[in-house]
Amino acid sequence: MRNLNAVIAADTAAQAKLNQTVQMIGEALNSEVCSIYLLRDGVLELFATRGLNQSAVHVTRLAMGEGLVGTIAANIETLNLAEAAAHPDYAYKPETGEERYHSFAGVPIIRRERAVGVLCVQHAASRGYDEIEIEALQTVALVLSELIANANLIDEHASASGPADQSAQTLTGLKLVDGMAKGVAVFHQPRIVIEHTVAEDVEVERQRVYTAFVRMREQIDRMANQAEFGGGGEHDEVLETYRMFAYDEGWSRRINEAIDSGLTAEAAIERVQQRTRMRMRQIDDPLLRDRMHDLEDLSNRLIRIVAGQMQTAAQTGLRQDSILIARNLGPAELLEYDKRRLKGVILEEGSLTAHVIIVARAMGVPVLGRVKDIRQRASEGDMLLLDVARGIAHVRPGTATLDAFDSQLALTRKRRERFAAMRDEAPVTKDGVRIELMMNAGLREDVAALDLTGADGIGLFRTEFQFLVSATMPQRERQQRLYRDVLDAAGNRPVIFRTVDIGGDKALPYMRNDAETEENPAMGWRALRLALGREGLMKAQARALLEAGAGRTLNVMFPLVSEPWEFEAARAIFVEQRNWLASRGKKLPNAIRYGVMLEVPALAEMLDALLPHIDFLSIGTNDLTQFLFAADRADPRLAERYDWLSPAVLRFLSRIIVQSNEARVPVGVCGEMGGRTLEAMALIGLGLRRLSITPTAIGSVKAMIRSIDTRDLEAVVQPLVRQGNRDIRQQLTEWAEGQGVELGV
Ligand code: PEP
Ligand code: MG
Questions:
Q1: pTM above 0.70, yes or no
Q2: Atom 1 (ligand 1): residue with closest C-alpha?
Q3: For ligand 1, is residue 188 a contact (CB within 6 Å)?
Q4: Label partner for 590 (CA 20 to 30 A): which of 16, 22, 201, 534?
Q5: Which CATH number is 2-159 given?
């Protein structure tokens, strides 16, 4: 490293420095070939080589993605190959004379998170390279990035896709948190460009990193102590994961090792981060990948502390309505923003289960994820429009797009205001029938929507959400705390807790699950099946719910019940726990009501045996319809394959509703179907009087309810369903429009 530093610091031309570097690396690694390719005019050009034909220098050129070198740059990945020609991307360049060399190792040279070149070595013998050799190459690549920038060898702002296009663009992405937003582009982090990569004094660098770690840990601890969302709950768990990383000894050790190799503190952190990023790409588990983003968040924070450039856009402050752009955000970073001005977020990465998304949802900030190259396509201050429902972001929109968006936004706002104004009005039909309109929830923060929407209560509280957002299995005390807080917030409005619906596709990283080998996880070892199989889990949850419900009415329901005996077995666990608490003289719920979710068609055939034993029934149409039609609910290709307003669905539901009503057992629908106005109207026409829906739909469904007369509705819906017409949707729409029913579309 010292020699390399001398080469770079010497008063020689850039080309000479590159030539000396390849000689030096070649000698140090004892490799016959060492080459440097740099990006020029969007193409990777051989700039210096030891071992390949010198006549190929500035002649051999590879496009991004072409050959091994192009692949390394395009994917920003490292390749380590004992037999280069065996790699599918190998492209033979005869002018280089490289056919003699069998093994190949190459690393990207990265500047501002983009590959600007490739450093590689080759050996005649077929051999794999050791970890330590790869690390040495990565270190040199980091130093080279400094040299290349200082020598103006590459155009810093030219990217592989050419200079930034200033025209209007529409980008697509993944819907993470629904909503519409308008604002100017603000980059979360003004990029920190590492100016010095080679350490002058290793001890000084060591000390700088040590101090930075101390400061970072203080910051995280402080953040944890002043968690914004009422303390406790999911955010606690987010910050716990954070703290775990911040105090991780392995991480600080790797950074110190990089400093030992001669890098500055900034470069060492960056190098360790690059490696983590590369590893992250190979991880298949999305939950684990999300946790790795938390580590990346911390790593960025550490570099900023070391470099004394702590300011993110959150700290400099948002001056106007803004849409934040970031590759990825940590939850803590998002929490630092001024909520009044932060209108939306666009991420290059991001996934539904990431902590930051849970936080964004709680803050009510729309998020579009996986927007490719957003940081290259938009510039600071550009006007941005975000329409998450359609999965798009407009960059520098033209007047026509802007006008259309503005009127849509105004419409949405007006509708929202109208619905908000209806908050205190009861969901009563024109003929005086009171519909129970409840909402679905799963996180502590969702409960706030009860007051905002005026919902009658929580008809489905998905308790597995707490398990999904936790880094470790939530213990009974933590569960109990959440349930109690939810009940406190709900006051005298009922809350129906559903016991955990985990397993299948909602696998928990910390719980070994046989489901990994399941071919059909939705029909597999999940929900109540898993809970009854793991009695400890169910007992702990039963106890947590009973304790939280002390002195009030506790409503519990069980998911995915297939046969009545499963309900009996689940209730027996609650009864046993209740008796145990009673024998200790503990305070108990005043009443416990047990309910069942009807999601498995077979259970519908057993209602006569089940209904006398339960206090309420809740129809989970999401699962029920996927089983009824044998159509995976998560597969977008099948989304159009069945209609909730098809006669098969409505006849099936009609039987359940009628039978429950006759048995005087309250019955509701808690699947997504109930949140759509036309579908909800049809359900009421079948005799349903209770709905539990997503909070954002409460306003529109309430408006629909207040505009119907159940007698007229029943007279039209029931014959249609009996006749089994295929076009019920169309006929109901026409009827509703004729009657002036508010469908909110
Ligand atoms: C359902 O299946 O309809 C339901 C409400 O449960 P979940 O969506 O959580 O499976
Ligand atoms: Mg379900």
A1: no
A2: 620
A3: no
A4: 534
A5: 3.30.450.40
